[in-house]
Every structure is written in structure tokens, then in C-alpha cells.
Design brief:
The protein has about 70 residues and is mainly beta. The protein has one domain: SH3 type barrels (Roll). Helix content is about 10%, strand content about 45%. It has 1 helix and 6 strands; from the N terminus they run H-E-E-E-E-E-E. Strands 1, 2, 3, 4, 5 and 6 form a 6-stranded antiparallel β-sheet that branches. Strand 3 and strand 4 form a beta hairpin.
Length: about 70
């Protein structure tokens, strides 16, 4: 299985990019803040159009289909 960092590099996603994905309960937008060797850090910006502005934390890009916005 590919790591989250590998997926980001393959898709050309970089620090500062905003990604959006939806698991069926409304879209969630995250801001990539760091890409390590295997993991990424990101901040949740919004969920279902409601502002979140949460603290930076470990995120996965494998849990849902994401696109750069």
C-alpha cells in the first residue's frame, strides 16, 4: 500500500494545496501543511461548507477520493 506522502507526490500535491473529499456526509476541505517521508500534516478548513479552522494534525488521503481545489 502506498503511503499518504507517496500519493501526494504522485498526484503533484504540495504544501499549501487545498484538497476536497466527500464520504457522503458533505465535502471536507483540508490544507496540506507538511509532507514527510510517509505521512502528511494538514488543517481541516471546512466540512459541509461550515468553517472549521482546526489545528494541524495527521491526515490520510486514502480514506476518500480527493481532488485539488
Amino acid at each position: 500500500m502506498k503511503s499518504d506522502a507517496e500519493i501526494c507526490r504522485e498526484k503533484g500535491w504540495q504544501v499549501g494545496d487545498v484538497l476536497e473529499g466527500d464520504e457522503g456526509d458533505g465535502p471536507t476541505r483540508i490544507l496540506i501543511t507538511a509532507i514527510g517521508e510517509r505521512h502528511i500534516l494538514a488543517k481541516e478548513l471546512s466540512h459541509n461548507a461550515a468553517d472549521r479552522q482546526r489545528q494541524e494534525s495527521h491526515w490520510t488521503v486514502q480514506a476518500r477520493e480527493r481532488k485539488k481545489v
